[in-house]
Write the structure tokens for this entry.
Amino acid sequence: SAHIQLSSLSRFWIEPMNKILIARFFSVEYVGFYDIALRLSGQIHSFFSAALTPLFPAAAELNKKQGHAKVEELRIRSLYYSYPLIVFFYLFLLLIMPDFIPLWLKTGNVRLIVQTTQIFLLATCLISLAVPAYNILNALGFAKSTFLLQLQSGIINVAGSILLSLLFHFYGFALGFLFG
């Protein structure tokens, strides 16, 4: 579907736009802090997203052969198993980040990177929790709705990042990602 592709493309532009804004409002050094935090949290989200991708064809097949009631059972079952695992894993990472990142990074503003990573982990946890519903909605033909949601999220991310950075400097920018 064109809407699924547009949704992917809309997410593609957020990261470079945020980096340009960070360089403009703060400095290039902060782009590095942002990128480290984003890469760490993004890898975790990619893992859960990939693990939950089979929901798309499963939901489409169930809907075609057995109707919405079976898709609803799939949705409930997927949430029953995925939510506790996702939440546990992200909570574990939130707790170990203050000790993990200093093992890896010995110089620079390690505290800022740790805290930014924790903010991004909270955001990607929420995004990961939405993956089952997102895949199922796309499978049921609601790609336009999920695209519009992605577009709204991107707008909120950029606007929130700019506004919150005025109040909380770089942390405000990171919080914009959380609210987007």
Remarks:
- The mean pLDDT is 90.
- The chain is about 90% helix and 0% strand.
- Helices lie at 2-25, 28-52, 55-66, 68-104, 110-139, 143-179.
- The two ends are 24 Å apart (CA to CA).
